[in-house]
Design brief:
Blueprint: H1 8-18, H2 26-46, H3 68-81, E1 87-92, E2 99-100, E3 110-118, E4 129-137, H4 147-150, E5 159-165, E6 169-174, E7 179-185, E8 190-195, E9 206-208, H5 219-230, E10 241-243, H6 248-258, E11 261-264, E12 277-278, H7 279-292, E13 296-298, E14 315-316, E15 318-321, H8 323-338
Parallel strand pairs: 1-3, 9-10, 9-11
Antiparallel strand pairs: 1-2, 3-4, 4-5, 5-6, 6-7, 7-8, 11-15, 12-14, 13-15
Helix pairs in contact: 1-2, 2-3, 5-8
This protein binds 1,6-di-O-phosphono-alpha-D-fructofuranose (AFP).
Residues 64, 118-121, 210, 246-248, 264, 276-277 line the site of 1,6-di-O-phosphono-alpha-D-fructofuranose.
Length: 358
């Protein structure tokens, strides 16, 4: 009976009743975020029939040329969440500096950090994109947050989640007690609980990485990918499958549903960037979701959630997904750093290790 379904709004209210430490205002903020995601879902679904003429795009703070939908999605997130009285400030991938809540609106006790449209290079080819968000507490007594007030580790997140705009629009959310998925029911315009208690299989035979960057990777990453590609004939003794959608939200969602490993590791392609993905509004929210679902998220050397941010647009290496595979990669990095990693050879990428080169 569809009217018996639990909507996201009902779920959040009931969750707050259950928790020993309710977060006043969080329900209202999360409802504003879901409204924004519904609006972005409509904008994304309209594609080329939505005349987006007149949308001013520019090269953003990331050095990336914005798509019109990047701008539209950012405007929707800001305009939907700024007025409710729950936020003291916002940070977006699309805005150089933190966004101050206009004086005409009351300020609240939370900070919202988000990537309004992740995977936007997929928009023109009609592939899945998404919105990623992270909710932090504004420091006690602060109503005019500075940039430094946003620089909190991922362990400080109150809530984290994403919306994925694919064949169906879904929201996946964690409030610190598990991960739950909600599917947008277009007939009633509500996200309804369809995936309660999502957990990631600890084992997997599927990995996702942009292999075109192989020559820029560190040896432990090459070792891991080489072994996956060697499959049953190699040290892993099993064949692996590979995926790469170039949309982190889609990769993470697939991993939540069936397990897997996703990584955008450190590479030397641009030595000024320690990774491609941003800590505050991509790595941290996804890392919280991974851990809450029984997975793991690491830079290869550090638990992502424990990193002390140095900048709101800071980039980090990201390795996340099924716990045993993340732990294997962490071990490979440790062995490499200690100079004890085993020699490995593979006909695919030639022989490379600390001990042999070819
Ligand atoms: P865009 O939002 O610029 O498309 O970047 C998406 C992303 O940050 C992440 O979602 C993908 O996993 C990754 O970049 C894809 O990077 P490559 O284009 O280098 O494969």
């Amino acid at each position: 009976m569809p009217y018996r379904r639990t909507t996201l709004s009902k779920f959040i209210i009931e969750d707050q009743r259950r928790t020993a430490t309710p977060e006043p205002g969080l329900t209202s903020l999360l409802n504003d975020i879901q409204t924004a995601c519904k609006l972005i879902a409509v904008a994304a679904s309209r594609g080329a029939v939505a005349v987006v003429g007149g949308v001013q795009t520019q090269v953003n703070v990331q050095g990336e040329q914005q798509k019109p939908l990047d701008v539209i999605a950012n405007d929707i997130m800001v305009g939907t969440c700024e007025w409710g009285g729950q936020l003291a400030g916002m940070v977006s991938e699309e805005m150089d500096q933190p966004y101050d809540i206009p004086a005409l609106y009351p300020r609240g006790r939370y900070l919202l950090v988000f990537d309004p449209l992740d995977g936007s290079s997929n928009i023109d080819v009609n592939m899945p994109v998404g919105t990623i968000f992270s909710v932090l507490r504004c420091p006690e007594g602060v109503s005019e947050p500075t940039l430094e007030d946003f620089l909190q580790p991922g362990t400080a997140q109150v809530a984290a989640g994403y919306a994925i705009y694919g064949p169906t629009a879904m929201m996946v959310l964690t409030l610190g007690a598990g991960v739950h998925g909600f599917t947008l029911d277009p007939e009633i315009g509500a996200f309804t609980l369809t995936h309660p208690g999502m957990t990631i299989p600890t084992e997997t035979r599927e990995f996702a990485v942009n292999v075109s960057n192989e020559r820029f990777w560190e040896p432990p990453v090459r070792r891991y990918v080489d072994e996956c590609i060697e499959g049953a004939a190699g040290p892993r003794g099993a064949d692996f499958n590979m995926r790469w959608i170039a949309s982190m939200v889609a990769e993470v969602h697939r991993i939540l549903v069936r397990g897997g490993l996703f990584m955008y590791p450190r590479d030397t392609k641009d030595i000024t960037k320690p990774g491609r993905l941003r800590l505050m509004y991509e790595a941290n929210p996804m890392a919280m979701i991974m851990e809450q679902a029984g997975g793991a998220a690491s830079t290869g050397r550090r638990r992502i959630l424990e990193i002390a941010p140095e900048g709101i647009h800071q980039r980090v290496p990201v390795i996340l997904g099924s716990r045993t595979e993340v732990e294997r990669l962490v071990r490979y990095h440790a062995e490499y750093d200690a100079g004890t990693d085993a020699p490995f050879t593979t006909p695919l990428f030639n022989a490379r290790s600390l001990f042999r080169t070819a």
